[in-house]
Design goal:
The structure is a single chain. The chain is of the alpha+beta class. It has 2 domains: 9-102, no CATH class; 116-172. The protein has 6 helices and 5 strands, in the order ββαβββααααα. The protein has a 3-stranded antiparallel beta sheet. A two-stranded antiparallel sheet has the order 1-2. Helix 3 (94-115) packs across helix 4 and helix 5 packs across helix 6. The two termini are 39 Å apart. The relative contact order is 0.09.
């Protein structure tokens, strides 16, 4: 148990330590240092209950790197708390961390989507042209959301099975890579 006179310290290296206590907020300098030393984009959330924080009673630092799709995915986690248990580790909300990190990318993707032709089949559009358009939309959505087909269906007011058939057709025509099965 740490002394009540000194705040506990988190040792990141032999020569660098940063004080952490219940009144302090981890400075952005720690996230920047972790990014420099360990790579990736490190972000942090302090000891606040959801929805303002990620985990109650712990500070969470998360390392994120871009996946092949461009979407940032979790590649490392640092938990700081009074006593981190196995149960706490199971409670790390990976999807919320990834979505939080990708929110700014959503605005960029929306700007790009606004420049694309609407996802609507017209009479003068060949099936190949429509599949190419579906693939372009899918790639942009895949950068910012974990379930691009569902997001596209909701955005364009079509049923999920319809959107999945459009995406399947784009894959069969070679405009999208083969899908991977199961949880990622």
């Amino acid at each position: 148990m740490p002394s009540s006179r000194k705040p506990p310290r988190v040792i990141l290296d032999r020569d660098e330590a940063f004080p952490v206590d219940d009144q302090a907020v981890i400075p952005d300098d720690v996230a920047k240092l972790l990014s420099r030393r360990l790579g990736g984009d490190w972000q942090w959330w302090w000891r606040a209950s959801p929805p303002d924080g990620i985990m109650e009673g712990a500070a969470v630092l998360a390392q994120l790197k871009p996946a092949n799709s461009g979407r940032k995915v979790l590649t490392g986690v640092l938990l700081l708390g009074d006593a981190i248990t196995a149960e706490d580790l199971r409670k790390v909300p990976v999807i919320e961390i990834e979505n939080s990190a990708n929110l700014t990318r959503q605005d960029v993707a929306r700007d790009k989507l606004a420049q694309l032709a609407p996802l609507k089949r017209t009479r003068d559009m060949s099936p190949e042209d429509f599949s190419r358009l579906v693939a372009e939309h899918y790639r942009l959505w895949a950068e910012v959301v974990p379930h691009p087909a569902a997001a596209m269906a909701a955005e364009h007011g079509v049923k999920d099975p319809t959107m999945h058939s459009w995406i399947r057709e784009a894959r069969l025509r070679g405009f999208l890579p083969a899908a991977r099965r199961g949880k990622r």
